[in-house]
Specification:
It is built from four helices and two strands. With 191 residues, the chain is α+β, with helices and mostly antiparallel strands.
Length: 191
């Protein structure tokens, strides 16, 4: 597991560095354009700001996407455990960017990355369900099973946090150590 996590983080670190280089190239092109327009004072400052903003925006979106994925995976896992058909599994809201279908589930990535959802068969009480699929609907399950399906998302987020922090603390977290550079002669600390 730890090798998998290290590989995962190393992969994304390389992607972010590659992305940062592309952003710096865009910033350099923007600088040349501004120099030609005689806006020299903006030339040295703007690429740095552009790069800084883009790296943090992309990093935030990646972290949110991972957290949302883990949360929705919790709902999905418990629904599958109790044999509830999952109709849609989406990371993001709004228009879908791409999707594919496997068995009864459509897996999607949508445009707005600030959320996600899992649509279950029979989740809406008014939904028409074919008689042969009634046993696979959300409303055919016991109260405890429904509670576990709903609680699966927060539970997976909690477990994910425990795993990530356990890994970080096993690997080590950088801490500033107290360091004494030297003592001046003739002062009480010298004795």
């Amino acid at each position: 597991e730890s090798i998998l996590l290290i590989t995962f983080f190393a992969f994304f670190e390389q992607k972010i560095i590659s992305y940062q280089r592309r952003v710096m190239t865009i910033g350099a092109t923007l600088t040349l354009f501004l120099e030609r327009l005689k806006l020299v004072s903006l030339c040295s400052f703007l690429p740095m700001v552009f790069s800084f903003i883009m790296i943090y925006i992309v990093s935030t979106i990646i972290v949110l996407a991972v957290l949302i994925f883990v949360h929705e995976l919790g709902h999905f896992t418990f629904a599958k455990l109790f044999k509830v058909h999952v109709l849609k599994f989406s990371i993001g809201f709004g228009p879908k960017l791409f999707s594919f279908k496997k068995r009864e589930t459509e897996y999607m990535v949508s445009l707005v990355p600030f959320g996600g959802f899992v649509k279950l068969l029979g989740e809406d009480k008014e939904e028409e369900i074919e008689p042969e699929l009634k046993n696979f609907s959300y409303h055919s399950k016991t109260a405890l099973q429904k509670i576990l399906i709903i609680f699966g998302g927060p539970l997976f987020n909690l477990l994910f946090a425990v795993i990530v922090f356990s890994f970080l603390f096993m690997k080590g977290v950088p801490v500033l150590q107290p360091y004494l550079g030297g003592v001046q002669k003739g002062l009480p600390a010298e004795h």
